[in-house]
């Protein structure tokens, strides 16, 4: 196995409320940030195997490895089979029932190594690198045997290394302590190399033997083996109890197709793992700079919450019985909606930060030499007109689960609708966040139409006052513009932007999903067929776009686009086609049922940040559409498009 760069799908994800780690099939933790998921990495070997740092536990000789989650949990087990015997490595971050434990308890990572059979020689490499390997890391052994790693921020290498480098502002969230520290407690006797800042050892694990490794950020978590075992049991129980509540609330979904069950369970568990417990926000992914194209420059930091994901996220959360999580997410989202419209940006930090300036880490080689490595995201300052419709749609869907439309929410809706009236005919960057293309994107216009349409519906349903005549007039103007300038008769499809002669875009599949046109409209059906013909591979992968001035064709299909195609086919009553496409999509999940952002069209390798929340959200929502179509024949497609699938799967809720 190549220990330099593992395939992205060779990683498993562990985590708790506000932190995550990627564990490779080679027993190496190659990505982990403390104290938060968006904090500087302490292990980043996935972005540079030489400089990034890792925490590896694995056999010294040849082995075959496999991994799986402990049933119905986010606790990961990796099994190594050697000629001498078999060992099992269990990785998890602690989490408990009841009142939220203090943050320090959860700033930890545990590794349990035990023998299944035989006796196996194991190497242990503890090589933290604070601040994405920019800070100096000092490692020392304490008198009682703990290994302590300490960050020296005064020696951090923040020197610009290219003309494009932009220094990011200091962020107090990443400095909860005067300086970062990691304490590794283990009974294994590690040798400390202070010059290279690494602690290593080689030990033989005998039959029936168990060894624990506990890693604590910002303090010490020295405990007995029995206490470690209890924490593991509590963590397993937490995940299973939480999942049981989802399955009880969403019986129709999880029992619809036995062969789909594991992928849907994993998607729900991934989504829960990524939710920030304190704020309710959800990062698009827990990683940065895993490339959209190997060796390319399209490497982005996804550890932020995007407004564009809100409608689909709310639908997925409610539909799998995560009502508490949906309400928390909406509260975060609602506060954004209460801002002045012109100040709202496409994405935010997980704690609500707005300053997400982009910075290049030129000292890191990048995943498979894909540079630059970025932290921060400059898309936060882009103009993306679709975000206003996303916010109004989110309010429209969520108030159905509450006591009604509050005065504050209505004031937000009014302000957003008025802003859309003034700006809908402008150019923007689109939800794909092109940095070199500024056009009148059809998707952006569609979401402007959604903002006005849902505002009018809310006014009617909740008897609210507003400039309805103006909204109605502008809504009609947007419809006319989309139908006249966004549809290309020669191509037989809605296109990427007004006047495009060749550029197709998978976002056109959202026209019936957002109830802009009925699914049986000839133009919608033509668009679906064109996308099936020109944007869809035989394996069911759907490209985001083709023949665009931004990029002619990407190397892989975008997972959420395949989900949109499934949804559009269901709304078109082409359910057999939709189910076939969905099953093809399931074949592209990893052995752990995880999904990345993109899948290479030729070799099936994962591309982009991982695991991708939007991909798992799309998978859940497409399963909801399919189950609704098969189990509720009297559910009109247009009602499904407005989110009616969500209450369908809540009817078993207690």
Describe the structure.
The chain has 654 residues and is of the alpha+beta class. The protein folds into two domains: 8-241, Distorted Sandwich (Beta-galactosidase, Chain A, domain 5); 250-648, Glycosyltransferase (Alpha/alpha barrel), CATH 1.50.10.10. Helices cover 33% and strands 19% of the residues. It contains 17 helices and 27 strands. The strands form seven sheets. Strands 1, 2, 3, 4, 5, 10, 14 and 15 form an eight-stranded antiparallel beta sheet that branches. It has an eight-stranded antiparallel beta sheet with strand order 6-7-8-9-16-13-12-11. It has a three-stranded antiparallel beta sheet with strand order 25-26-27. Helix 8 runs antiparallel to helix 9 (407-423). The longest helix has 25 residues, at 225-249. The two termini are 49 Å apart.
Task: Give me some keywords for this one.
654 residues; Beta-galactosidase, Chain A, domain 5; eight-stranded antiparallel β-sheet; 2 domains; Glycosyltransferase; disordered C terminus; alpha+beta
Mean pLDDT: 90
The tally of strands reads 27
Rounded to an integer, what's the Rg over CA atoms? 25 Å
**Estimated share of beta-strand residues:** 15-25%
Largest sheet: 8 strands, antiparallel
Number of helices: 17
Binned, the helix content reads 25-40%
What fold name stands as the CATH topology of the largest domain? Glycosyltransferase
| Low-confidence blocks of residues | 158-178, 632-654
Distance between the termini: 49 Å
**So what's the overall shape?**
globular
Taken together, the total number of domains comes to 2
| CATH class categorisation of the largest domain | Mainly Alpha
Content-based structural category:
alpha+beta
Oligomeric form:
single chain
CATH architecture name of the largest domain: Alpha/alpha barrel
């Amino acid at each position: 196995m190549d220990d330099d760069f593992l395939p992205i799908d060779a990683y498993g994800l562990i985590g708790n409320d506000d932190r995550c780690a990627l564990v490779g099939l080679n027993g190496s933790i190659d990505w982990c940030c403390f104290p938060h998921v968006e904090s500087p990495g302490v292990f980043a070997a996935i972005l540079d195997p030489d400089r990034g740092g890792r925490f590896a536990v694995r056999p010294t000789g040849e082995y075959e490895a496999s991994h799986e989650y402990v049933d119905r949990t986010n606790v990961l087990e990796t099994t190594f089979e050697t000629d001498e015997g078999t060992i099992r490595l269990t990785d998890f971050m602690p989490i408990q029932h009841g009142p939220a434990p203090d943050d320090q308890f959860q700033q930890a990572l545990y590794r349990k190594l035990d023998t299944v059979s035989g006796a196996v020689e194991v190497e242990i490499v503890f090589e933290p690198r604070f601040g994405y390997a920019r800070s100096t890391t000092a490692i020392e052994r304490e008198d009682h045997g703990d290994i302590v790693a300490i960050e020296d921020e005064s020696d951090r290498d923040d020197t610009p290394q290219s003309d494009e480098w932009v220094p990011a502002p200091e962020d107090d969230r990443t400095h909860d302590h005067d300086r970062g520290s990691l304490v590794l407690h283990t009974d294994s006797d590690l040798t400390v190399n202070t010059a290279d800042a690494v602690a290593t050892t080689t030990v033989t694990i005998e039959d029936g033997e168990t060894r624990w490794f506990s890693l604590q950020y910002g303090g010490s978590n020295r405990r007995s083996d029995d206490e470690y075992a209890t924490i593991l049991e509590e963590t397993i129980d937490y995940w299973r109890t939480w999942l049981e509540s989802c399955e009880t609330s969403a019986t129709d979904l999880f029992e619809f197709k036995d062969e789909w069950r594991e992928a849907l369970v994993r998607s729900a568990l991934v989504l829960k793992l990524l939710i920030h417990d304190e704020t309710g926000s959800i990062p698009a992914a827990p990683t940065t700079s895993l490339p959209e194209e190997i060796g390319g420059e399209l490497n982005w930091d996804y550890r932020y919450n995007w407004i564009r994901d809100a409608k689909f996220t709310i639908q997925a959360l409610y539909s799998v019985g995560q009502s508490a999580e949906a309400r928390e997410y909406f509260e975060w989202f609602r506060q954004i909606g209460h801002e002045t419209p012109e100040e709202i940006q496409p994405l935010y930090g997980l704690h609500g930060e707005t300053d997400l300036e982009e910075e290049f880490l030129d000292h890191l080689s990048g995943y498979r030499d894909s540079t630059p490595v970025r932290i921060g995201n400059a898309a936060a300052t882009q103009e993306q007109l679709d975000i206003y419709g996303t916010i109004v749609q989110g309010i429209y869907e969520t108030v159905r689960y509450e006591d009604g439309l509050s005065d504050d929410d209505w004031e937000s809706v009014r302000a957003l609708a008025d802003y859309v009236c003034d700006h809908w005919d402008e150019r923007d960057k689109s939800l794909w966040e092109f940095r070199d293309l500024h056009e009148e994107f059809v998707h952006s216009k569609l979401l402007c139409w959604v903002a006005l349409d849902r505002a009018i519906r809310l006014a009617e349903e909740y008897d609210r006052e507003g400039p309805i005549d103006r909204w109605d007039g502008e809504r009609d103007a947007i419809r006319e513009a989309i139908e006249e300038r966004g549809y290309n008769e020669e191509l037989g499809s809605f296109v990427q932007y007004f006047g495009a002669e060749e550029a197709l875009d998978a976002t056109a599949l959202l026209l019936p999903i957002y109830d802009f046109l009925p699914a049986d409209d000839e133009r919608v059906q033509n668009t679906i067929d064109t996308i099936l013909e020109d944007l869809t591979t035989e394996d069911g992968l759907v490209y985001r776009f083709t023949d665009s001035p931004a990029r002619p064709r990407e190397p892989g299909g975008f997972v959420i686009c395949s989900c949109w195609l499934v949804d559009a086919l269901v709304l078109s009553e082409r359910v057999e086609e939709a189910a076939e496409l969905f099953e093809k999509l399931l074949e592209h999940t990893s052995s752990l049922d995880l999904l990345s952002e993109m899948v290479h069209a030729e070799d099936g390798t994962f591309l982009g940040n991982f695991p991708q929340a939007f991909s798992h959200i799309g998978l859940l929502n497409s399963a909801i559409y399919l189950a609704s179509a098969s189990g509720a024949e009297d559910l009109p497609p247009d009602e499904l498009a407005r989110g009616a699938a969500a209450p369908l799967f809540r009817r078993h809720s207690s």
